[in-house]
Write a structure and sequence with these properties.
homodimer, 200 residues, alpha+beta, two-stranded antiparallel ribbon
């Protein structure tokens, strides 16, 4: 068995290096879209909440999810929850929500590959010998979806994106434009957050 | 004059639609890399802090920055500041930092294009007639860097990414793995944040 959900070359180019986690995220994204019966998001209608945080490895998964789903950080469709888990909830307002997570047994089996010996020594992915990298990528392609992913329907998941506005004002101190939601007031004048001295 | 910093086709595919802001971000990213003399980031060594927030338009810029720089959200190299401004600070630990922002005059001139009549009516980018979209993209390609971008050296900019660890534990309630930084304790047992009932 080899998965059909292998990332296109451009997804690796976007990501910057070859590693197993970008493809795992890509596959998770494709399976979640299939589950919810949604197409790749062209505009602003599909949301993903990856549970990764900072200061831990394997976050590369999230670039694969962006590549597969089109629910990108730039389109304000993706936000990490900072739970430190290799999981994500996928939400479409009209199609519902589903959570995918990596099964511990899969993570344990994958953790035995030489790739992680290098990573734990602090060697960056682009500097690991290519055969070592390709070995673990190929192995993941050969695993079944069922061995890799736990899938949970989330019928009660609620999310409403904030209402958008094109309104903006010029900061009275730096002269730069600020979108209205972020305009603050100081000495009676409109200012941006950095000029205001306020934290947010 | 036409800029050399036009995004490759895959950057549009990644982004999901054609619009002027993804290319503007791509160009901003390429110019910032040139300014700092850094190559596209393969691994985890170049950081970008876009000043956009939520509930406002033109955030698409950030997907262009990801595509240009390789400082992706998935590699934990990018974090929005939520200032509601079309600007970003680019930081390389050994090369320094620079802030690029869109000049108000440029934003005013661009705002006159028909593309924004559609956007303000709520028409999604993929649904706007292609000639209307291409008109404004082409116009941005023809503008000079100087007309578009304000550039500020940031010699005092400080940022230190958190120290990473591969350590993880199984949540005693759901059985899923959690990276150590996010393990919490409840009734004396290790738990993940969602099972803990704590907010973070």
């Amino acid at each position: 068995m080899t998965t059909k959900n292998i990332p296109p070359d451009w997804a690796f180019e976007f990501h910057g290096h070859r590693c197993p986690f970008m493809p795992i995220g890509y596959r998770m994204g494709k399976l979640a879209m299939e589950y919810l019966k949604v197409e790749r998001e062209q505009d602003h209608g599909f949301f993903v909440f990856p549970e990764i945080g900072e200061g831990h490895p394997q976050t590369c998964m999230v670039d694969g999810i962006q590549a597969a789903t089109g629910a990108t950080y730039g389109k304000v469709l993706m936000e990490k929850t900072f739970f430190g888990k290799l999981a994500a909830t996928f939400h479409h307002p009209h199609k519902g929500a589903v959570r995918f997570s990596l099964k511990p047994e899969f993570m344990d089996a994958m953790g035995k590959f030489e790739f992680f010996v290098y990573r734990k020594k602090g060697v960056e992915p682009s500097q690991i010998p290519l055969p070592v990298v390709e070995e673990v990528i190929k192995w993941t392609y050969e695993q079944t979806d069922d061995f890799m992913f736990k899938i949970e329907a989330k019928p009660d998941f609620k999310f409403a994106p904030v209402k958008g506005s094109f309104n903006k004002a010029k900061c009275s101190l730096c002269g730069e434009y600020v979108f209205e939601r972020y305009v603050r007031t100081k000495d009676g004048n409109p200012v941006c957050i950095p000029c205001s001295g306020y934290k947010r």
